[in-house]
Design goal:
Blueprint lengths: L3 H9 L4 H15 L7 H28 L15 H11 L2 H10 L10 H8 L3 H20 L1 H8 L2 E2 L1 H27 L3 H20 L2 H5 L4 E2 L10 H19 L6 H4 L2 H8 L2 H17 L11 E5 L8 E4 L5 E4 L27 H12 L4 E6 L5 H13 L1 E7 L7 H12 L4 E3 L5 E4 L3 E7 L16 E6 L2 E5 L5 H9 L8 E3 L11 H7 L3 E4 L12 H9 L3 E4 H4 L1 E6 L5 E5 L3
Parallel strand pairs: 5-6, 6-7, 7-8, 12-13, 13-14, 14-15
Antiparallel strand pairs: 1-2, 3-4, 3-16, 4-5, 9-10, 10-11, 11-12, 16-17
Helix pairs in contact: 2-3, 3-4, 3-7, 3-12, 4-6, 7-9, 9-10, 12-15, 16-17, 17-18
């Protein structure tokens, strides 16, 4: 027989936040199972889980520990670390409330509480500290739980956010109140509303620019690389001790009452799991953030990755000993500045990630690279040098190699400013210089000749590199046109190679018949977009390279083109992202 009385205990029971969270997730997954692989779904539910299962239980436990006093339910002091007890008392112990209770009580007793709790309460800063601590703890818990996803999806960890969450939160409250007041007062008098408008503008400016001091000190965020292959299991392993900590945080809410129930031994047994789980979580977090093993061991091969950067150039050389040299970084070619109708307005640019961030940096992170030893712009055109600005900002770079430093070139000026801000030294190179790398790789600089500083960069100023390892040679030609090609052939340089990066994206102004005959590669790689607005690569150029026996591959069709060698063999692989 149905009984309402039987349902009363269930109806009066407090709802579980974890059950509600799990129910919401289950409902969404039943409705659309593919949500499980959706980053927004993962980030949303894990962040709520961090708050519900880690931050709030810790705050509740701190509150119970800090407010403890001997009553029938909790006659004995809580079993916890001394520092945890002190922290709880600093934030939650109220000496005034204790005195009021003693005045109403028929008996009195003294408690040994930290003296600073009473001082903070007397100075009226205890509540403020409690609120700040709560915000910091919640922010830290969320970042800790989301750590693997932040690395895999964004390759970014915000250090400034832990501090700015509190500061910016206060500013946004001030901004909202000032804007509301300005709106109301402006209906009466614009002059009276002016101070509120000024306060709103000042709050907005501070909130927008608060991260700049951290950015200037290069501590606003970290850009960690990721583990791949079998090493990626570290991200799964990371959550094992974290789940133990969450479980223990939830169970320790009852630890203050454990002495009343006579369960000290069971509580102590559970507590023994906390320290090793915390140590394991900290160790795994450091492995993910510092990623000391993400790049893997050098395999003794020379590897050249021609990246698909649209209409630009970017090639990553990985030496047999693991040293890296990034030649060009792609970028957006300039078709002419787009300006608003009003004279003097700034150029309009869409707020999207550049090639250097979205393609080159992403590829380096996925290769587990947190450092690029050397970067080398072949010349200062945007489709070659622009992306290197992002690389210089996102990675530790040992040095930048340059052949030209144009005096009045906008793109070079930006690159120069970026490298100086990042503390990257500039080293000048020219024809006749030899670069030697570990493992037996020799790179000869064939072009340009050492010359006076020019006003602007030209295609014919491009750096030409001859990369030799064992019996194999790879030629990187930048954007040189027919003039430098003829000069190299006339100088009787050894141009014969196994693979060549075709000059100027396959333009008909390059790849002259004499140059093609002098190189005679088995592989010709053209860095070009799938639909080039310039008509690259030109049909005549393709025919010349094929006629000399070369296999022609374009990044627009094949994606990333990888050429590798141990000094004897020559392997070619392609990868096109879906």
């Amino acid at each position: 027989m149905f009984s309402v009385a039987a349902l009363a205990p269930a109806l009066g029971r407090r709802a579980s936040a974890l059950n509600a969270l799990g129910g919401a997730a289950l409902a969404l997954l039943v409705w659309r199972p593919r949500n499980l692989l959706d980053p927004s779904f993962q980030l949303t539910f894990l962040s709520v889980l961090a708050i519900v299962a880690l931050a709030l239980p810790l705050l509740s436990n701190l509150k119970e520990v800090g407010e403890w006093r001997p009553v029938r339910a909790t006659p004995r002091p809580p079993e916890c670390a001394r520092w945890w007890l002190t922290l709880g008392e600093l934030l939650f112990w109220s000496e005034r409330r204790h005195h009021r209770e003693m005045e109403r009580s028929t008996h009195s007793y003294g408690l040994f509480k930290t003296l600073w709790a009473a001082r903070l309460e007397r100075w009226r800063v205890q509540r403020l500290l409690r609120a700040v601590f709560a915000v910091l703890l919640v922010s830290l818990a969320v970042q800790f739980v989301l750590l693997p996803l932040q690395v895999l999806y964004f390759h970014r960890l915000s250090l400034a956010g832990l501090v700015l969450n509190v500061f910016v939160g206060v500013l946004l409250v001030v901004l909202s109140l000032a804007a509301l007041a300005a709106s109301v007062v402006s209906t009466v008098s614009a002059a009276l509303a002016a101070p509120f408008v000024g306060l709103a503008e000042a709050s907005s400016w501070l909130a927008s620019h608060s991260v700049e001091p951290f950015a200037a000190a290069r501590v606003s965020n970290l850009r960690p690389a990721e583990y791949s292959g079998a090493a990626a299991f570290v991200y799964v392993l990371y959550y094992a001790p974290l789940l133990i900590l969450m479980f223990e945080a939830a169970r320790r809410l009852t630890s203050v009452r454990a002495s009343a129930a006579g369960s000290e031994e069971r509580g102590a047994a559970r507590s023994r799991l906390v320290r090793p789980a915390a140590c394991a979580s900290a160790t795994l977090a450091l492995l993910i953030v510092l990623h000391p093993f993400s790049a893997g061991r050098p395999d003794g091969r020379l590897r050249v990755d021609f990246l698909d950067v649209g209409q630009g150039d970017a090639a990553l050389l990985t030496m047999p000993d693991g040293t890296t040299l990034l030649v060009d970084g792609g970028g957006r070619p300039r078709f002419g500045a787009r300006r608003d109708v009003d004279e003097g307005s700034e150029p309009f640019e869409r707020d999207v990630r550049g090639v250097g961030e979205a393609v080159v940096s992403e590829y380096l992170w996925r290769r587990g690279r947190g450092r690029v030893n050397f970067i080398l712009p072949t010349h200062a055109h945007a489709d070659h040098i622009e992306g290197l600005n992002d690389v210089a900002s996102n990675f530790k770079v040992d040095a930048a190699l340059l052949a030209q430093a144009p005096a009045r070139d906008e793109e070079f000026a930006r690159f120069d400013s970026t490298t100086r801000g990042a503390g990257i030294p500039l080293q000048m190179i020219a024809r006749g210089d030899v670069l030697r790398f570990g493992g037996g790789v020799r790179i000869d600089v064939l072009w340009p000749p050492r010359a006076a500083r020019g006003a602007a960069s030209r295609n014919d100023d491009s750096v030409v590199l001859r990369v030799r390892f064992g019996r194999r040679t790879i030629l990187l030609t930048g954007d040189i046109e027919s003039g430098p090609e003829a000069a190299l052939v006339a100088a009787h340089d050894e141009l014969r190679c196994d693979a060549v990066k075709v000059a100027h994206h396959g333009s008909r102004t390059s790849s002259t018949q004499a140059f093609v005959n002098a190189t005679r590669p088995t592989l010709a790689v053209i860095s070009v977009g799938l639909d080039s607005p310039y008509g690259h690569p030109h049909a005549e150029v393709l025919e010349r390279w094929r006629a000399c026996g070369a296999q022609v591959l374009t990044t627009g069709e094949r994606g990333i083109i990888t050429v590798s060698t141990d000094g004897d063999d020559l392997k070619v692989e392609t990868f096109a992202a879906q």
